[in-house]
Amino acid sequence: MPEPPILDYRAAVLAALAGEMRRDPAVILLGEDVGAAGGVFLQTAGLLGEFGAERVIDTPISESGAFGIAVGAAMTGQRPVFEVMFGDFMTLVMDQLVNQAAKVHYMSAGQFSVPLVLRTAVGIGASLGPQHSQSLHAWAAHIPGLKVVMPSTPWDAKGLMAAAIRDDNPVVFFEDRMLYTRKGPVPEGELVIPIGLAEVKRPGTDVTIIALSRMVQVALDAAEALAAEGIAAEVVDPRSLLPLDLPTLVASVKKTSRAVVVDGGYRQYGVTGEIAAALTEEAFDWLDAPVLRVGAADVPIPFNRSLEALVLPDARQLAGIVAKLVRGLP
Amino acid sequence: MNEKQTAKPAIVAEPLLPAAEEAVALLKSMQLIRAFEEQVRRLFAGGLVPGLVHLCAGQEAVATGVCAVLRRSDWIASNHRGHGHCLAKGMPVDRMMAEIMGRRSGIGMGRSGSLHLFDAANGNLGTNGIVGGGIPLATGAALSAKRAGRGDVAVCFFGDGALNQGLLFEVMNMAAVWRLPVLFVCENNGYGEFTAIDDVTAGGPPTGRGAVFDIPSEAVDGMDVLAVREATLRAVARGRRGDGPSFLVCTTYRYGGHHVGDRQDYKDAEEARAWRAKDPILRLAARLQGAGVAGADRIAAWQAEAEAIVAAAAEAAKAASEPAAEDLARAVYA
Amino acid sequence: MTEPLGRLTSLSIFRRMLLMRHFEEAVIRLYNEGRFVSHYHIYIGQEATGAAVLEALGQDDLISTTHRNHGHIVGRGADAGRAMAEILGRATGFNGGRGGTLHICDASRGFLSTSAVVGGCASLATGAAFGIKVNHQARVATAFFGDGALEEGVVIEAFNMAALWKLPVVYICENNSAGAVGMQGGGYPTAITATDSFCRLPAAYGIPTKVVDGTDMAAVYRATVEARQHCLAGDGPVFIEAFTDRWPGSNPLWPELATVTELAQAWEPDSIGGAHAEWIRHHDPLLRAVRDLLAEGHLTRSEIVAEDQAARWRIEQAITFAVDSPLPLPETAEQGVFA
């Protein structure tokens, strides 16, 4: 296999979108500023030119109504990709997402399905303030009938976006905006990564760091630092929250006997708690220490950069937390 | 209800009676809906319908008059008061009754009930538990229909309570901008749940809500199935030829409460009597008799036939089994 | 042109406009210097609207605004230094540096929480008006929003309830999408709407509407005074749509045009040049205000220059205050989540 080209994350998702739109005329794209403007982060640049206004549709600032229309279109033969400009604005589509899209297949006893993708950009780090920086993926992951995907690398982003578009269920696809410019190898042509498979991003034997989305790189950097201290950390990326590849996580924890779960969303009632509890249920006898949760500080995300930087740990801080766990908590 | 929110039907000549066969079909459709609702009411009283159920007796002319114009490949999205829409769009009576009674033979496997009756084979995107919830679904179906280019249209039925949902406004704007073949049908029965529409609604007649987007908006006598049918013919023709959305505000009346068991203390007895005097079934029956299409005995026979159909459906459902425990987690994902 | 305003009123509006303009010019400069990150939204081009509305409001009136709030904040007389400090994320900012450009809020001047979610301000102001009504207070609530807000269903829901309950709220739609560029696209380049006039939307709910030229401070002022009287008389909400031509520097999305407005261009039109000469010559509300003030004999050229210098000086002081202000202490990060 030839060396795959290097793309940034944004370009990888765009490649998947364009590829799927070429492959299947039922794929349409809707959202605010996705057409002429090419997306507020230029994440849909060029699609309008290639696929035209019938398939690349600029919506008004009417999130609830426009997403509801996407759900109806999905029920009747389209495969819409709907963009919510900021993850915080998911609050505006919640009724359509939770009470309609997630339940239609079940309520209709399988007569209808809702093959759509809701993609949205989340994450701290751009000084966007309290209404533009949250990571609310735990909300979506609470709802049966939805799938929730949050890739950490350009490679995964391309493969999982293609899979999300081909999935017959509503898939919520979270992209951390701070990953958009991150570069990595991405295979050319078709790449489909099945949703629901975790990946071990770095093998290790002393402790498992389960990390999602942008926190995977933080975990990898922490693991590198820990290696210098003689601690071999295994980094596992679930890649999707729903379905969650629990067997892979459990297998890792049974090997290492210690686990830290790291996520960019709020810690309280969050993804980290869910995964920690599941590990405790499934691997209690193998654990040598409590499973630790590391999430965003439970505050509205501040605008100020120095305060915002305190919301999530960096690699050095995470390494400290992990080292303390491995060496025995005080 | 006072006069403010009551859309004033335009002064038009009495609608023409369609050909005998079609006119009779309209009557039979309304009779079936009325019989169905009466049957459900009795079943509910007998403890055989779980949860809450919302009946449409009194509003039969809207469901019947609109769906009479539609073809099978056209879409509808309904609301919580949706039995009439489902029946008029062809949902099988027995599977529908079984669903409302929570039986496994129901069209939703007995898991969904009256609020969530879906029928893909007949273009029905479901009744809906969220006020206004069906509005964007039908409009999305209209987007699909437009892409498919076969001239199909989509209809959403909603009550006056949904008029004040911002969602309706958002969706009407997009339907107009994108010229989608969708027909917005408001059944203004005077009450949103337990509250009179005038107590919660500002502005002039509801047709104004569509007119701001230059959507052809028409006030219709919702107690006259022929008037509803004629207005729908005009609207659907616009949709089929690519002229975008239309809005019908059908003034009608809910004979019962918001749901079965609602004491309706907020309603005036005189008001209810006045509306019953405009009963859509009696009105069409009188016209059929006047035109010599059918006599009183044949009309009564059709009524009895409708009652027998729904009674048989109820008996079959009573005998049917409930969903099994293994059905609980079936079809969460496609 | 509308009948001119008196000297004191004109002068007061003009002073607010000068502060707004030089504040925004400073914001762009500070951004270009890397003093803060984030996206931000500039009020240049809309000053006559905001300044005239604020002039017409009473001291106790309540205001909710949007992501494009800087002009409203400083035009209302809020401390420009603390506003600038907020944009720079400093501890001395109105929100302690946690809100930033999108959420600047000075409660002491009657501002409600500043919402950066499109349309959010309309329901906040309507709720404030509800409070005013039930407490029988002699004041009004005002919501500033852009034309895009009229795509959000929540705004329409607010219209319905405000009209139904006759709430004392003045909705100010600052339609900055008009103008030569916008009209080529059929009228509303930033909004996607099927209506040919936004006034038809509130009108469908029985709300009186008024369209004004947003660069004509007299027209905006008089419309607001009238609307406020309507509210105070208990007659319910009013909707004002003020049209302005979008400042080329905020087109399409990111402010990038660093400028310092030279008021002398008002009387020396030949000195106007560059790519945006057309906008400066015909659509700049500040230069228009200068021309009007001169024509009405309210101010002389030298008085205008003096006013401009005073405003620039105040903004320079604000910058100094903001830049010299400390960052929030790390230990404050978790404070104030709950009351």
Query: Count the helices of chain A. How many?
Result: 12
Number of helices of chain B: 11
Instruction: Tell me the distance between the termini of chain A.
Output: 49 Å
CATH superfamily of the largest domain in chain A: Thiamin diphosphate (ThDP)-binding fold, Pyr/PP domains
Give the secondary structure arrangement, pairings included.
The complex is a heterotrimer of chains A (330), B (334) and C (339).
Chain A: E1 6-8, H1 9-23, E2 27-31, H2 47-51, E3 56-58, H3 63-75, E4 79-84, H4 94-101, H5 104-107, E5 117-122, H6 137-141, E6 147-149, H7 154-166, E7 171-176, E8 183-185, E9 199-202, E10 207-211, H8 214-228, E11 233-237, E12 240-242, H9 246-256, E13 259-266, H10 271-283, E14 292-296, H11 305-308, H12 315-327
Chain B: H1 20-45, H2 60-67, E1 75-77, H3 83-88, H4 93-100, H5 134-148, E2 154-159, H6 166-177, E3 182-188, E4 191-192, E5 195-196, H7 207-211, E6 217-221, H8 225-240, E7 246-251, H9 269-276, H10 280-290, H11 296-319
Parallel strand pairs in B: 1-2, 2-3, 3-7, 6-7
Antiparallel strand pairs in B: 4-5
Helix pairs in contact in B: 1-2, 1-10, 1-11, 2-8, 4-11
Chain C: H1 7-32, H2 47-56, E1 62-64, H3 70-75, H4 80-87, H5 120-134, E2 141-146, H6 153-164, E3 169-178, H7 180-184, H8 200-203, E4 209-213, H9 217-232, E5 238-245, H10 277-283, H11 285-295, H12 301-324
Parallel strand pairs in C: 1-2, 2-3, 3-5, 4-5
Helix pairs in contact in C: 1-2, 1-11, 1-12, 2-9, 4-12, 5-6
